[in-house]
Specification:
Helix content: 40-55%
CATH topology of the largest domain: Nuclear Transport Factor 2, Chain: A
Radius of gyration: 31 Å
Shape: elongated
Mean pLDDT: 79
Low-confidence stretches: none
Largest sheet: 5 strands, antiparallel
Structural class: alpha+beta
């Protein structure tokens, strides 16, 4: 019995279980090397799985700035500055009551703009989350939507769809 325990301490689990001496060179190193290769590949796999960030053009930056300015106007309840940033198509399709209701915020409000995508040349769509709260309700309300920003000509951008 004690001899088996001594063999376990000296030789490892394989000698303890089989009672035979196992050679150390060759196949005992292969599992360790395999384990090392698997471990390194698992560590490096997230690095190779990342896709490169898309190249941003000046149109994207301008469209993002217009979306941000428009939502700042919404956050502060500034109808005049918000109306200036709307395209003629958006002004024609939305009634004055719709625009007034959109810009009226009784409580604190906030927004998030996610990465936009090029819908087609001169049109970007930005996913947004609008947060609104009231003095009565302690929990803010989230509304998920999209803002469509279009190039109206001469690098002038406008919001084409209300969120």
């Amino acid at each position: 019995m004690w001899m088996s325990i001594l063999n376990f301490r000296r030789g490892g689990i394989s000698e303890f279980l089989t009672g035979r001496r196992v050679p150390r060179a060759g196949f005992m190193l292969a599992p360790r090397r395999l384990l090392l290769v698997v471990f390194i590949s698992l560590l490096l796999s997230p690095l190779s799985a990342k896709t490169p960030a898309p190249i941003l053009d000046s149109g994207y930056l301008s469209a993002l700035a217009v979306a941000d300015h428009f939502l700042q106007a919404w956050q502060s309840g500034d109808v005049e500055n918000g109306m200036v940033l709307l395209s003629t198509h958006a002004k024609d399709s939305a009634t004055a009551n719709d625009v007034e209701n959109f810009f009226s915020n009784p409580g604190p409000s906030a927004y998030e703009i996610d990465r936009g995508k090029l819908v087609r040349h001169g049109r970007y769509e930005f996913p947004v989350v609008l947060f609104t709260g009231s003095a009565k309700n302690a929990h803010p309300r989230r509304r998920f939507s999209n803002i469509l920003v279009v190039n109206t000509g001469k690098n002038d951008w406008a919001v084409d769809k209300l969120p």
